[in-house]
Amino acid sequence: MPKRKLKENKKSKKTHSKNVGRILLYILLGLLFLYFLYFLFVVFSIKSKDITEEFNTKKDILSERADELKKTLIIIEEGGGDKKKITDVYVYFENSDKKAEILIYIPSTLYYAGLEEKFGNEIPISSFRYAGDFLDKGRGVEYAIWQINQLLGFKSDKYIYFSAESIEAMGLKMEKSDLSNIELINGKMNILEMLIKAQNLSELDGKIYSNIPFFDIKLEIESATKGHKKFVREVLNLGDSKFHSKSSLVTGEEISVLNTLEFDTQFRAYLEKVVDRELENERVRIEVYNGSEITGVASSLGRKIVNTCCDVVRYGNAPDLLEKTKVYLTDSEKFSKAFDVVKDILPVEFEVVEGRPEFMTTGDIVIILGGDIKRMYIF
User: Fold this and answer.
1) Which end of the chain has less Cβ packing within 10 Å, N or C?
2) What's this model's pTM, rounded to 2 decimal places?
């Protein structure tokens, strides 16, 4: 065979091989693209379940105020049947304007005082869902979210409740309760991990309780775990014994109860770093008076106002009892952001009065709680 023809045959085979290789590459890229589309379809098909919409209690449980400070409550649960229990709680604060963030960790073994009237003892955070179902069957998740906000003294903007079923679907086993458990979830929600196991993702549908979509949940968990670059980050670990007070159950068992005074002191020091600038600049002074027959509501509500970055300068009892809550506002324009805080925290439709009440006050905003304030205790 002439050399020229031999060369042409070799060249033809080489060209054919290249073409086959190129076709196979295109097929592979096409399959990868189709798989990626399938992955996106699965991810955006996963629905979270908003328990606050189901029971129409969003205003009672979550903050609806728009500002630069974002607060996300993250709850992790394990177990089956009646043995379900909360294992870890995190709250993630971020202010992109100030480039600052806080991560609070709450161990589920910590007890909360103030529930003795209903349950006979302080109860651990791990039992909050069970306690809620005991009070009102089917509302355990909702109760847990509400009660943790009560414990911390503020409303979260967003919540993510990983049910025991969702943890099982991700194939996770929580380690000993500590800050690292959220890292396990973040690892499972890593994009590469989800891409590889896209066919299993659909098992999460309807098993995560949240008021945000699944993909936003993934981003929130990543931010809470890793933080943002160039953000100043503070971590408040309530597993630290300085946040504990010792107490005993009726059985004699010694328990650790959250020391809210110690928590509030440390929390408020960190809060100054992430507070919304416009709210901070108002430098408002608020007074809270109890005009109802319910004891302790002025200090309870005042704590929530302070833990939402406003200064409460005075608590007390009002001279007279009121049926309907009133809010006296000295300057609606100057204190608009603080007034938004008050509106967000107060669980009732209140009467707004320009000026000051008849008795002696010095606050920029004066709140007089009426008998309708009993609605703040939704459970």
Assistant:
1) N
2) 0.91
Contact partners, residue 342, CB within 8 Å, separation at least 6: 286, 305, 310, 327, 365, 367
Longest dimension (CA), the chain: 117
The answer to whether residues 244 and 298 belong to one domain is: no
Question: Residues 115, 163: one domain?
Answer: yes
- Angle CA 208–103–115, to nearest 5: 70
- pLDDT, averaged in runs of 10, over the chain (379 residues): 55 66 86 85 91 90 93 94 89 96 95 85 93 92 96 96 95 77 91 85 94 95 94 95 91 92 96 95 96 93 95 94 96 95 93 94 96 88
**Residue appearing with tokens 């009732």:** 348
Considering the domain architecture, whether residues 229 and 332 belong to the same structural domain is answered as no
In terms of domains, do 283 and 363 share one?
yes
**CB 165 within 8 Å of CB 79:** no
CA-to-CA distance for 360 and 379, rounded, in angstroms?
A: 35
β 326-329/351-354 pair status? parallel
CATH of residue 141's domain is 3.40.630.190
Domain boundary among 271, 294, 313: 271
pLDDT on residue 255: 93
The backbone torsions φ and ψ at residue 316, rounded to the nearest 5 degrees and listed phi first, read: 175, -175
Q: Give residue 124's domain range.
A: 51-271
| Helices (H) then strands (E): counts for the chain | 15, 15
Both structure tokens of 12 = 């033809």
Identify any residues that bridge with 158 across adjacent strands, giving them in sequence order. Answer: 72
Out of 237, 271, 305, a domain closes at 271
Residues 6+ apart with CB under 8 A from 278: 67, 337
* Cα–Cα distance measured from residue 308 to residue 319, given in angstroms and rounded to the nearest whole number: 27
Q: Are residues 250 and 111 in the same domain?
A: yes
Domains in the chain, number? 2
Same domain for 262 and 302?
Answer: no
Give the DSSP per-residue string, 19-61.
HHHHHHHHHHHHHHHHHHHHHHHHHHH---B-HHHHTT-HHHH
**Is 124 inside a domain boundary?**
yes
The DSSP H or E segment spanning 143 is helix 140-152
